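Reply to dn_fold:

You asked what the input looked like. This is it:
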Amino acid sequence: MRPAARAPGSKPWYAQLYVQVLIATVIGIVLGYFYPTLGAAMKPLGDAFIQVIRMVIAPIIFFTVVNGVARMGDMRRVGRVAIKALIYFEFITTVALIIALVFVNVWQPGVGMHINSATIDTKGLKTYIDATQHFGAVEFLMNIIPPTVVGAFAPGNVLQVLFFAVLFAFGLTMLGKKGEPLMVVIDVASQVMFKVVNIIMYTAPIGAFGAMAFTVGAFGAGALVSLGALLLEFYIACIVFIVVALGAVATISGFSIFKLIRYIREELLVVIATTSSETVLPQLMAKIEDAGCEKSVVGLVVPTGYSFNLDGTCLYLATAAVFLAQATDTPLDIWQQLGLMLVLLLTSKGAAGIAGAAFVVLAATLATAQSIPVASVALVLGIHRFMSMALTPTNLIGNAVATIVVARWEGALDQTRLHAVLDGRASRTPEAVAITGR
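and this is what came back:
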């Protein structure tokens, strides 16, 4: 029997990006396990891939937000979309914190460890602890405003670029017809930057291989065994949050969370391997827009969500904080945990644009709460990257769901297109193919 013919333009299975990333990830795990020194030496491959993606994120956000907001025209609508997004973000991150607290208190992975914080080796913490010295509510809010226009783009701070892009879009809108030629330039520049991302993504399997080989080679199976209870509890908490919480939100909004996960599977595999959700921000924006969400809403909600809708990071912070209290025999009653949750609602918003963001925010949270020894964060330093392999895809799925929900709430969602895309019945639009190359 002759094999079934492929659809015109489709690629064979081995040429699919998610298959290549999956194979590269498995090879990286094997290399890191059997040859840990060589595996750890592969770190530059993963770092280089992440760095080259981050290189183009700032201009992509700028061009996309300016294009979307300026074409939206009505500035009141821009404010309305932003407010709806922030309301949803606060609601869903609160749900994530509650689920994390319930799981860690029921599972109690740290009970019985009896760790004396005075005996913990904190040599590897200096970089993270130093980063918390200027970490607070005022500093976070002030950091949204870039020192200069160029200063917003140089470090690639998402919130600073977003802030300037919105202001620039407002100014461009006020020009009226005079600004139309510049709109054309910005639209073309945006397409060029997405083409650059398309080129970069050919190296995604190499980046995934390097990142995974380093993770397994540097930290090894020992870390997984010693803190296996914490890892297992955290992974299950993330799965429950995605399936139950996000699944319920998706069902109410009229789509399936499982179909959405299948739709963004390539991006999820890249994120899991590199433990950085920034690596697929451009592709996520392109895919959500292709699924029927209005471009202006996608351009505003997705970049904002990367700072304010970090569901996986919230799960990590609450889980790790209570685990450390359990491990160091630090009393933490229900009222103290509720207070900790309020602190986390603020500190979790500052987890974007910082190296080792979630770990830095964890240290900052403990320093703010002043009940759990800050030095105890050293206990999870060795498995932080393994926990990131769960928290980053949770962040990605959370932002995909959030954008669709806000678009539907705003009446900016083509639900017929959404169902056709998630069911695999719709072909990609020429614009989406031009951006992602798939």
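The radius of gyration is 22 Å.
Hope that clears it up.
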